[in-house]
Write a structure and sequence with these properties.
Oligomer: homotrimer
Radius of gyration of chain A: 24 Å
Transmembrane segments (chains A, B, C): 21-42, 96-117, 138-157, 163-184, 196-214, 234-253, 265-285, 318-338, 409-430
Shape of chain A: globular
Largest interface: A-B, 87 and 83 residues
Subcellular location (chains A, B, C): Cell membrane
Main location (chains A, B, C): membrane
Structural class of chain A: mainly alpha
GO biological process, one term (chains A, B, C): ammonium homeostasis
Family (chains A, B, C): Belongs to the ammonium transporter (TC 2.A.49) family. Rh subfamily.
Chain lengths: 480, 480, 480
Amino acid sequence: MGAAQSFRELCDRTKNTNVRLSLPAVCIVWQTAMIILFGVFIRYNEESDTHWVEYRKENNLSDIQNDFYFRYPSFQDVHVMIFVGFGFLMTFLQRYSFGAVGFNFLIAAFGLQWALLMQGWFHSLDYTDGKIKIGVENLINADFCVAGCLIAYGAVLGKVSPVQLLVLTLFGITLFAVEEYIILDLIHAKDAGGSMVIHTFGGYYGLSISWMLYRPNLDQSNRLQSSVYHSDVFAMIGTLFLWMFWPSFNSAITDHGDGQHRAAINTYLALASTVLTTVAVSSLFQKHGKLDMVHIQNSTLAGGVAVGTAAEFMLMPYGSLIVGFCCGIISTLGYIFLTPFMEKYLKIQDTCGIHNLHAMPGVIGGIVGAITAAAATESVYGAEGLRNTFDFEGEFADRSTSKQGGHQAAGLCVAICFGVGGGILVGFILRLPIWGDPADDNCFNDEPYWEPTTEECQNQQPSLSLHGQTTKMIALSQSM
Amino acid sequence: MGAAQSFRELCDRTKNTNVRLSLPAVCIVWQTAMIILFGVFIRYNEESDTHWVEYRKENNLSDIQNDFYFRYPSFQDVHVMIFVGFGFLMTFLQRYSFGAVGFNFLIAAFGLQWALLMQGWFHSLDYTDGKIKIGVENLINADFCVAGCLIAYGAVLGKVSPVQLLVLTLFGITLFAVEEYIILDLIHAKDAGGSMVIHTFGGYYGLSISWMLYRPNLDQSNRLQSSVYHSDVFAMIGTLFLWMFWPSFNSAITDHGDGQHRAAINTYLALASTVLTTVAVSSLFQKHGKLDMVHIQNSTLAGGVAVGTAAEFMLMPYGSLIVGFCCGIISTLGYIFLTPFMEKYLKIQDTCGIHNLHAMPGVIGGIVGAITAAAATESVYGAEGLRNTFDFEGEFADRSTSKQGGHQAAGLCVAICFGVGGGILVGFILRLPIWGDPADDNCFNDEPYWEPTTEECQNQQPSLSLHGQTTKMIALSQSM
Amino acid sequence: MGAAQSFRELCDRTKNTNVRLSLPAVCIVWQTAMIILFGVFIRYNEESDTHWVEYRKENNLSDIQNDFYFRYPSFQDVHVMIFVGFGFLMTFLQRYSFGAVGFNFLIAAFGLQWALLMQGWFHSLDYTDGKIKIGVENLINADFCVAGCLIAYGAVLGKVSPVQLLVLTLFGITLFAVEEYIILDLIHAKDAGGSMVIHTFGGYYGLSISWMLYRPNLDQSNRLQSSVYHSDVFAMIGTLFLWMFWPSFNSAITDHGDGQHRAAINTYLALASTVLTTVAVSSLFQKHGKLDMVHIQNSTLAGGVAVGTAAEFMLMPYGSLIVGFCCGIISTLGYIFLTPFMEKYLKIQDTCGIHNLHAMPGVIGGIVGAITAAAATESVYGAEGLRNTFDFEGEFADRSTSKQGGHQAAGLCVAICFGVGGGILVGFILRLPIWGDPADDNCFNDEPYWEPTTEECQNQQPSLSLHGQTTKMIALSQSM
């Protein structure tokens, strides 16, 4: 009885999650719009255009000095972080791996096209012909822009429909581009690894949306809101690729030469330090000192987030270690104490704990960046090095490092405001009852949006397998 | 009773799949032959030889201008696509993961050595001393060559023995090298990403072989010809690494500078566009608009195949998006309608649906390449750029772009002919009863060629687990 | 009864594996010490310092000639090998995936910081200011240094506590740095890929420790000392990333230009050849010629180890194939015959068979290197090439290649001595009863050191589930 009934319920439920019209419509319309806009606005820049061969000779350059060779390896590492890193990191839930990897894939492919346009209008517009000229650096920035939305996805993982995710991404990219323009161009703050622009914004954007979409009865899905042995191993694939390639992430768009070199070293060291303090705190607060996979999967990455802004500064190797040291502790404590507190009292349900992995470390990163910038001196950087590192040129030629520090802090505030404000706005839109989101007792489940796999009916789904076997049993008992 | 019996049958079956003599014999003989041939023919080229240090000074070059630094990062990405990308993409079957990853590994390691020789004789032979001089570009081309055979493997996945796969590879590499020489050197068609040379050839080669090896009673293996939850997640590892690194694949051997830069951008955009249309069509044709993992795993890659030939041309960003847009739709529709049709009426059993992922998109890519080439103008490319992009030098100095378009089309035809013709020939050879291929009711199963793992006997085998469940059921009935 | 009792035992057991105080203490103290030491000693070198912009102009260099662009792509590949390669290679055990990936992660992050200091004091100390100046090459060397300890971990996998692993690493890194200094600087042996310095040392270091920690009653854990289907697929992720990136490993710190180029080619070829002979021997010695996953996962990598020392020499392509050919055979035979023999008669329990994958191939690599060096001639290398390849400069300007061959052999002996001697010493320390290592019947089990996941108690653990079934059986018989 119970089995059959629960099975019927399971099917009924899929009714209200039908996205058969909305999802294809959004995708096709959107992609068509992209083709038109790309046709009107986007062209190759002088380094990816066939005229490079002439350009190169005029400027007496070698092919190897094409920006492609400075940035492409880092780009590919960033690309892996976006699609495999973020995707697999979210596969820890026992029955939401398709959604984690698949929707992550969809969001990223959807967002990066819009990001190329939005960021292009702000940063790569050629006023001579009104076209956006793109090269490998634009691809990296598009991936960065998408990262903000993937971070936000982590907060609502398993509780929203793919259509909602596309809306979240559309607005997220737009807000990101504006916020980035204000912080980097108007305020002229530096943010190589995007501690502020990407992680702080993305984190608070997702948390605000999750707060707007609060589900009081989410506990009905509790049996699925946990990991199983294999899903935790899959998640480690994401963790490790994020951890390993983070130095490329923070150095991907920094200055050629020492800028990229230094950013990679600082990130490498901060991450190493984070691993040890994460393990320490995780063990210290568990019964028998056992390690918790949730901490190993997430908090070990906090150092990379927090060193993002200052990565290209003369943070010094020991400075990087200190940043990582603190973030490992703070992030792990966040998972142990803050996440439950936020869910219970602030009504913020944060599936992946992005507050501990992105929001908090992002803010720390912004502060570290402000302090490091304010403390910068010519004696350490060298006159040219200082100018070069902080781009004290043109209208900013006479800016002092202390002033720069203040502007860094201002940038951090802008990121937080855009994140919170934008999240509340978008969250409000996503509460409309038209998006086909799952019922409270059907969250963290691939069943509503993905065709089931064979085994599904036999071994995996408790109720079903029970049901399926029963019939077999009867046959068996008869054969006895 | 039944359980025990079915188990005994399972064991008996392994009899006719014994490759204990043939497999080691082929491997050892082959590898020995390779050592001898490499000893006679293969040497380092001037960039990988210790004389580089003198060569460099004579030509006033810097170490960084060694081709290694132009191509090695792309090479490593391609390498990952070949071994992890293709390997894991095929792990979607519930009980054929060892065969998918392991035989993919064997084919690739086996094929790339033969490819270095075959391609070397055609392209890198130094007539002064009759030696083949190899460098990093040869390694990339060897990987490309192997890709053709791995594509073919996708069509016969789970239905052949490792020995058959080695034969398939031996002939496949040979045919590939000849076909490539005709298309690239004699016809002088351009094919940066190998839409024609790799994907069209490999696709039809595999389909023809599968047609020759048609199994009327394959439905006896149906219970295994499907995925389970975990196997689909494993397959996504392959999908994502192929998707992410495809820009490196299409730009790996293009011209230094703008050629590599542009090819990467075009591929990046085409793939992004494909993801959206794939999701749209997959959702549109499923009940309740649920997404099908098969489409997400495969069709999302079609854009990378189709943009291969034109990737280095001035396809324009919007052009790339259009190519991706169409391929996502066509490829997904292929999985929904064409694959079942081909199996039922054309007697072509295509395990991985390579016709939708490689053959069709490959042909589209060839056509797109022909059109783009024919439409090329000096006003867009610049005089030098045009000459440079299409290598209008030497005997081809006076070739017009429209003529080039025609030759591109001719190249496509050659690829199809070699694929179909070669496949029928090799398929005929593979039908000989000496290769130890599995019985119809033992396909898509690792059991015939791989030592079983522990759990095997306890939890996995239906019969046994069935037994275990029995008790649960009764207990249940009692509790009711 | 039995079920409940065995379960209680399972819980009791965790008592003696409580690391709640020791693990956090070691991590925090250690990381704090690192911060202090880095503060005192470590600074950026001229290529990662902001003064690069001046340095560059003085030396008339382009940004692209910053060492970062020569080595960073290889560094990232090596980084992946260390964290994903070694980590996942060890996930083959059915219930030790968390420990394999997680402790590998901990050891590496812990060790690379100490390695930067130890290696820095020996190789990168700037005597003008007493500071260690680091750049990307130091990061690569730190990863290399860590590799030695991860190899050692393979021998004791599943039998030690995380605290023991940290001790193993602390001493391992120290010994490594000294041994490396003696071999590379004092003896002036060349060892690009570390066949001697990394693999021989690491292999014998681990084996000696395992010998000191011999567990006579380990068979009590036998039910867990085996793989399951999924865990073998996870392990293949490690195998493939190691295999694919090994050319980067062997070429990461070789000379710019032809050195890196040649090392990559040689490694690529050796590895391809190893795959075929591994498959051949694996099939030849199994019933029905079935392949054993253990061999495919490990022996296929032996060629990369064995070609490490000679990778940068003029080994010639066919030479690389021969090295790979032999190692595939020897390594696989080692797994079939030697490992059982060593456990039974030498009391060396080698969980991952590192003797077959690292120790033996490492020794072969050292010998190949000695022979290749002794056989080097100016006619093959060119006068400048010879000097350049073997660094016959300064005090070594007049060293003959035959003399170099002898010194290579001497280097190999040093590596073995340090490995065996250091292992016995450290093994003695690890036998102290204070480290919280698991009981004999609780080895190869994540349960003592990791918080359980949901499913844990229900489906996964054989013994329990097995037991569970029994009781249900009784219920069945009664109900009839």
